[in-house]
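Below sits the subject:
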Amino acid sequence: MKIRLPIDLEQGIIRAVTEGVLQPWMVKPKEFSSTGELVFEGLKHYIDKGGVLPVTVDVVKEYVVGLGKVGPEDMEYFTGLRKAPTGTGLDKVLDLARRKQILSYVIEAAGDDLAEGEFNPDRIKKILEHYESTSTFEPLGSNLDGVMPTPPQGVNLETFPKLSAATGGLVGFWIVGGEPGLGKSTFAWQLGMEYARGAERNVIYYDIDATGREWLIYRTWLMCGKDLNKTRDYLSRIYLRPSIKFMEDDLRKIAPPALIVVDSLQTLPTRSGQRRESLDRWLVRLKDKVNQGYDVLAVSEKNRDSYDKEPSMKSFKETGEIEYACSVGLVFKGDPEFPEDPIGLHLVKNRHGNKRGYITRLERRKDVIWAFKEGK
């Protein structure tokens, strides 16, 4: 249910701020594309430092580039920014755009109810409450009744105790990156099995990389010690799709708690000529599922220029939105030429913990080549 503004309106809003037509506090940068969010962040930094308005787009560009907020691939964004029309009343246009987006959610939910043959007022209520929540403002302490809320408890990863201890367990939005051939899909499937260990938790695995249904079942059987009953028990809570096209339909059938696994981000369907923007929108969409109570695990490739560098958030390939979307970022470090050698597991983002850096090494189990264990 995250609002995502059209790119032309987004650029018009940023241009309006540069001209002093809109105040920065009226803008919600999380509604922007990843590049727009970075440009606005730089613009706001310019204003906070005493920069004078109105200011030209070229001055903003020079300032934002100087801060290291955007790279060469983002330069085209400023061309659209220069062409963006501005004027008074844009705040009303912005509010109407948000209302229109909320209305589309209401219509979609009502259509789903009609298709299912029953009316669900709670679903409509939650959508409307989402809009109201963006318009109201009250202190966090106003609803505390003496019972302190506790943070969400992550799913304990019994096979990976060091990783589980460092992160607090699998919860939120996890992204696993690494070079091709290091076993990221194996790791993701194994984490999915850990998640499905609880009888009340389901896993929806989008096998976009086409590992294959038979192979995944076979690997599960090996992981379960060739115990058919145990294998059947695990797989009774794991749903497999070769395409993510009908994710919304799938999630209407599988309520939280459930884990959405995307293998991999780079094989998600994207629009021609808008690949990076499409991937960023997928990440925003998946993050929205976390807000709805799901957990998400996504597999990503590494940038080629980061192969020989220390793992960091910059290691992830092709999209800048990862840094903002994920709560936990994991990077494999190893040599694809020797896939059976130990792999270093590095925690490059840990939103709910203070542990970062090298966590442990992953070793292939001798009895099951398609499974990992933590090294000593």
About this structure: Residues 1-149 form a domain with the DNAb Helicase; Chain A fold (CATH 1.10.860). The chain has two domains: 1-149, 161-374. The CA atoms of residues 308 and 333 lie 9 Å apart.
